Amino acid sequence: MPAARRIVVATGDIIGPKMAGPGIRAWHLAEALSTTNEVELVTTASANAADPRFVIRAVDDDALRHLEQWCDVFIFQGWLLEGRPFLRSSSKVLIVDLYDPMHLEQLEQLEQGGGTGAGDVTRTARARAATAVLNQQLLRGDFFLCASERQRTFWLGHLAALGRINACTYDADKTLRALIDVVPFGVPEAPPVRRAPAIKGVVPGIAKGDLVVLWGGGVYDWFDPLTLLRAVDRLRRAHPRVRLFFLGMAHPSPDVPEMAMATETRSLSDSLRLTGNHVFFNEGWVDHALRQDYLLDADIGVTTHLSHLETELSFRTRVLDYIWAGLPVVATEGDSMAQLVESRGIGLTVPPADVNALEFALGRLLGDAELRSNLRQRCRVVASELAWPKVTEPLVEFCRAPRRAPDLLDPDIVANLPRRLGRVTSGRPFGDAVRAGLRHLRAGGPRELVESVAARLRRSRG
Fold first, then answer.
1. Disulfide engineering: 30 pairs with which of 9, 272, 363, 443, CB 3.0-4.6 Å?
2. Residues 331-382: pLDDT tens digits?
3. Alpha carbon distance 373, 381 (integer Å)
4. Smallest Cα–Cα separation from 213: which of 194, 231, 190, 201?
5. Whether pLDDT at 460 is above 70
6. Which residues contact 432 (CB under 8 A, 6 or more apart)?
7. CA gap 246, 218 in Å, rounded
């Protein structure tokens, strides 16, 4: 049996009852690796959770330095490498989780600048900074994870442009699976179990006999809830019991401001006189452990987006929750999850921004209980194939015999890799910091504000 390894899984997201995608993913990677290894799950944000299988804690840069010395393998995501030269220069095996093409997300944010003005300057700065961060990671990583084959093709191009696909890495494995492999988001191995009603008969305006269409996550600028609202506005005449429920409007991290699309969504719902009658907003963020009660109280899961590059390379994790809970899916075409919905027959897909097609798809499912039941059965089969222990197998296998990337051990290759690929800055204007500070002050008073400023200073040190 291979020797147990010391492994760090590091994220910049909150680890606790209320988690967004990066924190959830980091947790499950740690969970999969902890069966045969000594694992620490750490965050540079805040931690309020415990698991007997691995250590969970919040860390500053000093603690990260000690962990780098302690571990055999260091796995990270997001911006964590930036500002920490002790990680870039580490001789340990570094695994980079690229499941989130964050530079493409930045292009979708603040888009309403319209080609002139401060909003566009901010978008440009943020996208440039995210690209520079990713370049650093791609030049240093020994092994890379991504969420789909489509993403893998994209990242292979990026690696090739940086010189990481070379005779050394190619000869080591002509498929390059030894350099980058697919580890998608997964679902819990056990099926969800209802503990209490969460929507029907609980949310004022939603009765037990209503039909709930669930928007199972945040409302971000790269989504298209506006077309969905217009479809529901039409549907309510033929299906007066339809209820659209937005599961989370406020991101669990106070550092993430509400996006423009969330504001537009509320405004359109109000103007169509849907709010409180056929459209309902959960203004907070549901605890990760409680989400199953909401999923099991719904009849259909929906996700809609526009046609753009972020869509093509995204991996809509909320759809996995729908599949886990056996919810028939209605999704916009164009991404990996829509392909899964189509190929496995677990729902219906529609063209982007097509109100008529979306109205028809939702109406078909709302009006056919037998069809919904059949799709639920198919979802359960697919869910069993997407369990976390299965989807994490490439990572677990690599960590049985972790190794440095062969090209990074060749001085001649390293000497010819690009050195400086753009300046890395936060790209965030002063106003963003002020708004974040005000949110902390309102949420927890002066003490929380001081702690948040201290955490930002620790993250920027180096």
1. 9
2. 999 888 888 999 999 999 999 999 999 999 999 999 999 999 999 999 999 9
3. 13
4. 231
5. no
6. 257
7. 8
Pairing of strands 180-182, 143-146: parallel
> Do 375 and 328 contact (CB within 8 A), yes or no?
yes
CB atoms within 10 A of CB 440: 20
- DSSP-based three-state secondary structure for 70: helix
CB 320 within 8 A of CB 186: yes
Apex 287 CA angle, 274 and 276, nearest 5: 10
**CB neighbours of 102 closer than 8 A, spacing ≥ 6?**
78, 130, 133, 134
The strands making up 6-11's β-sheet, listed across from edge to edge, are: 55-58, 38-43, 6-11, 73-77, 93-97, 143-146, 180-182
Map residue 420 onto helix, strand or coil.
coil
Output the CA torsion sign for 55, 77, 149, 401: negative
Helix (H, G, I), strand (E, B) or coil at 166: coil
CA distance 285 to 291: 10
Query: Is the backbone of residue 223 left (phi > 0), alpha (psi -120 to 50) or beta?
Result: beta
Cα-trace Rg, the chain: 22
Query: Which strands make up the sheet holding 347-350, listed edge to edge?
Result: 279-281, 242-246, 211-215, 300-303, 329-332, 347-350
95's CB contacts (< 8 A; 6+ apart) are 73, 74, 75, 76, 141, 142, 143, 144, 145, 395, 398
296-308 per-position pLDDT tens digit? 999 999 999 887 6
**Is residue 162 within 8 Å of 179, Cβ to Cβ?**
no
Residue 260 has a pLDDT of: 87
CA neighbours closer than 13 Å in the CB half-sphere of residue 385? 8
Q: Under a CB-based contact definition with an 8 Å cutoff, are residues 129 and 334 in contact?
A: no
Q: Which SS3 state, helix, strand or coil, does residue 90 take? A: coil
Residue 96, strand partner residues: 76, 144
Task: Tell me the C-alpha distance between 101 and 151, whole Å.
Answer: 9
DSSP 290: G
Separation of alpha carbons 225 and 7, rounded Å:
40
